[in-house]
Structures are given as structure tokens and as C-alpha cells.
Amino acid sequence: MSADDAGVDRATEKRYERLSPFELKNELIDLADDTLKKTAHSMIDAGRGNPNWTSLVPREAFYLLGQFAVTEARRDWSEFAELAGMPQQDGSAGRLDRFLTAHQESPAVALLRGAVEYGVTRLGFDADSWVGELADAIHGDHYPLPDRMLTRIERVVHDYLDLAMGGAPEGGWDLFATEGGTAAMCYLFDSCVLNGLLSPGDRIAIMTPIFTPYLEIPQLDRFHFDVVELEAVTETSTGVHTWQYPAAEIEKLTDPAIKALFLVNPSNPPSVMLDHSTIERVAAIAEHENPNLTIITDDVYGTFVEGFRSLMSIAAANTIGVYSFSKYFGCTGWRLGVIAVAKDNVFDRRLAALPEAERDRLAQRYSAIAVDPARLTFIDRMVADSRDVALNHTAGLSTPQQVQMALFALADLLDTNFQHRKDCETIVARRLKALCDGFGIPIPVDPNAANYYAEVDLIFWVKQRWSDGFAEWLQTAYEPVDPVFRLAEQGSVVLLNGGGFGGPEWSVRVSLANLAEDSYRKIGQWLTEIMDEYHREFQRRTV
Q: Which value, in Å, is the radius of gyration of the alpha carbons in the chain?
């Protein structure tokens, strides 16, 4: 397709470049749908990171536990056919044991037995209290109490984060269960500003490329932060992106004018974790050179990299960690996220050191929910802020969601062979190979890569496959989003433009999580065919 007969003209493409990639995706799907009416292609949507795998055993255990909770409610009282009481704690562990014995042995039965044993033997829970909490929570018959997170479930999820994030800090974390990682981020931004840890107009640093909303939220009127982008521009000697950060970029954090650092680790879309030297340097800066730095890290992809360590572990006092169960366990629809704040943290100390007028303002804000508002921790303020304080008594993630979160966590804690992790790694590795085969390029080897996404730098690839001259012409003749429009129109393939994530303008993000293996081979082949079209036009116009 030449510039003269393109389905979407260049002026329109320039307007589309201003859209968030996730909004642009909807436009591309519309184009692909039009193509479907004319061709036999099946639409391939690799533009979103929703995995097409689901962890079955924790779900089966959830459904089985729900059946037990119903019998427990009927046992309490059952005067009417459609109404019953509530699960009761006393004797509940023995009744669950008998309930499970009456069922055929299965992985779900084994997980529930293992969950009870883990709580009792590893965490010191009273068996009836533990089973009673699970049964009552899955039945959903009370508001969450504590509203931040159910007591025993918090201990379980804490152990999981300890395993998944590279170790808990001394003293551990306090956790706040949220409606997914996105809700967690919204709560964080709002509470940081409401409590004076950040102020509108403050200078913040964002490590790019990054999940697009994290570029967009700071620009909102109520924040309007002054954003400094730390760019992952490190390359190998052959020009291959490593998606790591030059030392000079990290040294910008020593400036005390930078009040916060936002990152996704491993990154999105490159899907590469920070190397050891970078994460240690960030931790040192937070401890010694910029001690009031607020670090907010989203580590949803950490479980896809061997030996992952989070800043919520290494720089715990300065870090607010966000983790979502959505990708690793294939449960985006469950909306399961958690915020972790170290019990020993700079945020509480900074709140105590605020000017008197600011402390008085905040004391008034929280006076309805605390006898001594000044002693309210930052994470508990965040819980209250999530319900505009006045509705604090109804705060918290729904209790059935918390049970499913705990069962996902327990499944991994009890998986001593790490089979689930190995299976997830195998899936994305096979898909990466298929994509590379389609492009006709070798599989990149990077021990820091999660491989949940692939960010393909089209200009680097064009230079390697054809020539620098062709690459220069392409960037002059077309807009960076033109290849993704052509893919949608010609092949019913939907990809996201990498430039919208703060990455190279001429790059595309391919999710390796949500399509059949052979689809990735087709993506590579079709993108190659489209670049061949450009190259033929280049040859015609430059002869």
C-alpha cells in the first residue's frame, strides 16, 4: 500500500498518534473487523496483555470451598428454603476435614487440605479460626474486617510476596488488598497528594518505556506533575536494545527536587527486569542521597523472571509496592491486586514531620475514623481515602475475592517444584520462538527478560534486514503508526505502537500471552510482508 492508496491517510495517522495505545487499539480492531468481512483471516489481537491461560486448581478449590460454606450456613440455621444463616468458626476445621473426605481425592481437595495445614503449621493459626475466616469470607456475608485486608489471608499473601518479590524486609509489610493493580495505582496517586507526600506540580521521574496510563495519570489536572523520563536506551555493541538504563539516567534521582520515581519492573512493554547494578544504585540513592524519594513500583511480571528482586524488598523503606495476580494466574477478571508498604517506612515518618498546619488539616480529614488521627499510618489513610474517608467502614476488597487471592498464593507456596512458574515460562518461550521464526531472526537471549511482551524496534530490524538508507526513507515517508494500520487492514492483526509507551516511535508491542503459538509466527511473517511492500516502494521511488 503506497501513500497514495493507503486506507488511512497520513494526516489521520498523525492524529491517531496522540491517542493512548489502548484507545488506538479499538480503532485498529474496527479496521480489522472490516477486513474480516472481506477475507477468511481470523483476527489476531496481540495488542493486549490478557493471558489465555487460567490456573485451574485454585479456582476448583475456590468452588469447592464455596460449597462447604453453603453447608456451613445451612448448619447455622435454615428455617426457610432459600435463606440460611452464616458459617460459624467453632468446630469448622473438623467439619471441613469431613467434607473433603466425602469428596473424591483431587488436586483441589489436596490444595484445601494443604491450605489448612500451611496456616496451622507454618503461620501458627488456630485451625477453627483459619477455616472459619475462609468459610465466612467466601460466603461474602460480612464487610471486610479489618477493611485493609482479612487478618489471616494477609499473612498468607505476605508469604507469597516474600517468595515472589525476592524477600520481605525486616519487620515485613502491611498489605492492602485492592481491585487489581490499576485500582492500587489510583489509590496511591490520590493518597500521596492528599497527605502531602507529593504536591501538584512536583517533579517526578518515570522509567520508560512504561505502561501508558502511568505516563498519562501524572498529566491530569489534579496532579500536573513535572515529569522527568529516565530512558532505557542501553544497547549492545551490535545495536540490540537491552532495555536497561545508562548510569547517567539513574544518577538523575540524586536530585532532591525529584520527589518520586514510578516504574514497572519487569518493564512493560519491553518485559525486562532492572539489572542488579541499577536496582542496587536506586536503593542506595533512596537511602543516602535522596532519602525522601517515594518509589512506586508495579511488579506484576516479576514472577516470570528467575531470581527476581523488587525494590519493595531492596529499598523497602522508600518503596510502595504494587502486585497484581492477574497475569501469572490468568485472572484479570477477578481484579486481584495488593499494595505493600514496609512497616518501617519513610512515609509515616514524613507525615509526622509535616508542618503543624498541614498536620492539623489531615487530623481534621481523618478525625471521624480515628481517635488520634496523627497516629494513622499512611497505608490506613490510603484505605480510608479509597472510600472518601466518610465511607471508610465499607472499604476493602470483597471477601470472596480475598479468598481467591489467598488460594492462588497458597497454590504457589505449596508448589515446591515451581511447576506453575515453569509452565508459564515454557508457554511464553515457545511463543517468542514462533515470533522470531516468523521474522526470520534469532531468538534473543537475556536472563533479565520476562518475555511476557516483545517490543520490536522496526527501524533496527529494517537496518539489519535491508539498509540504513531504506530506514531513513521510511521514517521520512511514513508515520510510525502506519505499519500497525496496515497490519490491521491487510492481515487483521492488532498490535500496539511502542511509541505510546514512551519507547522508540517506530516500534510495536506484541503480547506473548494471549494468542495461540502459531499466531505469533503469522505476525512475524505478515509484518515482514508489509515491510517488503515499503521496500519495493522505496526501490521504485529512489531508482
A: 25
User: Measuring CA to CA, how many Å separate 151 from each of 147, 341, 373, 384?
Assistant: 10, 16, 22, 18
Q: Is pLDDT of 14 > 70?
A: no
Alpha helices for 240-290 (secondary structure H): 247-251, 276-284
231, 175 contact by CB (below 8 A): no
CA distance 295 to 315: 9
Contact assessment for residue 70 and residue 25, using Cβ atoms and an 8 Å cutoff = no
* Band of pLDDT at residue 502, cut at 50, 70 and 90: confident
SS (H, E, C) 397-463: CCHHHHHHHHHHHHHHHCCCCCHHHHHHHHHHHHHHHHHHHHHCCCCCCCCCECCCEEEEEHHHHHH
Q: What pLDDT is stored for residue 340 in this prediction? A: 98
Angle at 267 between CA 17 and CA 232, to 5 degrees: 75
Q: Is pLDDT larger for residue 360 or for residue 219?
A: 360
Strand duo 203-208 + 258-264: pairing: parallel
pLDDT surpasses 50 at 512 = yes
Can you tell me the distance from the alpha carbon of 198 to that of 209, in angstroms, rounded to the nearest whole number? 23
Residues 6+ apart with CB under 8 A from 95: 68, 72, 75
For the chain, the distance separating the N- and C-terminal CA atoms, rounded to the nearest angstrom, is 19
> In whole angstroms, what is the distance from residue 311 CA to residue 169 CA?
10
Rounded Cα–Cα distance for residues 496 and 382 (Å): 33
Cell of 439: 521474522
Q: What are phi and psi of 496, to 5 degrees?
A: -105, 145
Provide the CB-side half-sphere exposure for 16 (13 A, CA): 23
User: Is 339 in a helix, a strand, or coil?
Assistant: strand
User: Whose CA is closest to 488, among 13, 4, 11?
Assistant: 13
Cβ atoms 335, 181 nearer than 8 A: no
Cα dihedral sign for 237, 447, 452, 493? positive
pLDDT of residue 339: 98
Per-residue pLDDT tens digits for 222-263 = 889 999 999 999 998 888 899 999 999 999 999 999 999 999
C-beta atoms surrounding 453 within 10 Å:
28
pTM of the model: 0.91
